[in-house]
Write a structure and sequence with these properties.
This protein has strands spanning about 1-5, 10, 15, 30-35, 40-45, 50, 60-65, 70-75, 80-85, 85-90, 105, 115. It has about 120 residues and is mostly beta strands. The strands form 3 sheets. Strands 1, 4, 7, 9 and 10 form a 5-stranded parallel β-sheet that branches. The two termini are about 25 Å apart.
Length: about 120
């Protein structure tokens, strides 16, 4: 399955886990691609945004690509959450309003501060 967005899309992410009322999400996501190759689209948190994934949540075999910005934003993944066989491709662009550099952004468990990994 390929999840894609049309040109001019304005959203949090193409694939996003909502904030849970309890502060925890129990998720198993596997075997899909998330793709944005359309100029003019804006994703506030990359094309994949993972929040509060806990207790053995798993993300397996997911490919994400964003020609014009960030790819993965992962925040508050803890308590045995795993990411296996994931991939991200980003060209980034300094000309976007959000100043994207094409990073994969991972937040520590507390959600404070940021760790950025070079694409």
């Amino acid at each position: 399955m390929v999840l894609a967005a049309s040109s001019g899309s304005q959203m949090d992410a193409i694939y996003c886990i909502d904030n849970a009322a309890t502060g925890a999400n129990y998720v198993r996501a596997e075997g899909f691609a998330v793709w944005s190759n359309q100029p003019g689209s804006t994703f506030a948190n990359g094309v994949v945004h993972i929040r509060a994934a806990v207790d053995q949540s798993r993300f397996v075999g997911i490919f994400a690509e964003n020609y014009y910005g960030d790819v993965w934003h992962v925040e508050s993944a803890c308590c045995g959450a795993t990411f296996d066989e994931i991939q991200g491709t980003s060209n980034g662009t300094a000309n976007l309003a959000n100043g994207s550099d094409g990073w994969y952004t991972f937040y520590p468990r507390t959600g404070k501060g940021r760790r950025r990994l070079v694409p």
